[in-house]
């Protein structure tokens, strides 16, 4: 059964942040809120935790995992950022955007696309995420908390007439994760906008939250 931390949405309590940080450093997998959807994640340095995340999401090892960084300067530690990519990211972060970038050697093989050597990176506009990132000192894996039910017929975060509430989402995942971060807010259900920065010009490959803002700026 997961440990639930009830954390303030705007001013996360330091004691809870430190406890979650210790859990993550010990290899915990957590369910947590972001500025887009609720996400399943872990410390990027814990291979065993990343493998568990993949099992929960039923993801093959050749599908890259997105991770969160606290700032643009931190992104440059884990990805090769061209001048064009830098200008794009500086304009749009923090916010609901995932940037596809070529990785540095600090990104584990189990996280990246094995053929392209790329991954998705986000800088969230979310107090809880940023508090956890700064406390942990490592990026945090972030994949949407939409997993298949036991019959593998439908995402368990979606019900016939809409979406599960926060309580229902917690109930479905509490036996699969070690930590649940509860900031008292209902889940959002629109994912991030994905922008591929591996080419000469940025390309929006998925329209998610605030994609119109990115499209307008990219021209």
TrEMBL record:
InterPro entries from the UniProt entry: DHBP_synth_RibB-like_a/b_dom (IPR017945), Sua5-like_dom (IPR006070), SUA5_domain (IPR052532)
* Top-rank EC class of the record's enzyme: transferase
Record keywords, A-Z: Nucleotidyltransferase, Transferase
Q: Which domain of life is it from?
A: Bacteria
Q: What is its EC number?
A: 2.7.7.87
Q: Which GO terms describe its molecular function?
A: L-threonylcarbamoyladenylate synthase
Coiled coil stretches, renumbered: none
The UniProt record lists the YrdC-like domain at: 14-210
Q: Does the keyword Nucleotide-binding apply?
A: no
Q: Does the keyword Nucleotidyltransferase feature in the UniProt annotation?
A: yes
Gene3D superfamilies (UniProt xref): DHBP synthase
Q: Write down the PANTHER family for this protein, in alphabetical order.
A: DHBP SYNTHASE RIBB-LIKE ALPHA/BETA DOMAIN-CONTAINING PROTEIN, THREONYLCARBAMOYL-AMP SYNTHASE
The protein in question is named L-threonylcarbamoyladenylate synthase
């Amino acid at each position: 059964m997961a440990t639930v931390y009830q954390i303030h949405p705007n001013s996360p309590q330091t004691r809870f942040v430190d406890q979650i940080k210790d859990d993550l450093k010990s290899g915990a997998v957590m369910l947590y809120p972001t500025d887009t959807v609720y996400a399943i994640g872990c410390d990027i340095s814990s291979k065993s935790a990343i493998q568990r995340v993949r099992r929960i999401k039923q993801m093959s090892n050749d599908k890259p995992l997105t991770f969160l960084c606290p700032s643009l300067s931190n992104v440059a530690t884990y990805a090769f950022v061209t001048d064009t990519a830098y200008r794009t990211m500086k304009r749009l972060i923090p916010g609901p955007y995932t940037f596809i970038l070529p990785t540095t050697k600090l990104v584990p093989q189990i996280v990246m696309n094995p053929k392209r050597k790329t991954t998705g990176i986000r800088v969230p506009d979310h107090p809880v995420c940023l508090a956890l990132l700064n406390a942990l000192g490592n990026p945090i894996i972030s994949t949407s908390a939409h997993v298949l039910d036991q019959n593998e017929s439908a995402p368990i975060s979606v019900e016939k007439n809409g979406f599960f509430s926060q309580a229902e989402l917690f109930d479905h995942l509490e036996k699969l994760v070690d930590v649940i971060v509860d900031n008292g807010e209902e889940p959002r259900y629109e994912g991030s906008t994905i922008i591929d920065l591996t080419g000469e010009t940025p390309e929006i490959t998925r329209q998610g939250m605030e994609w119109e803002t990115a499209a307008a700026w990219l021209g």
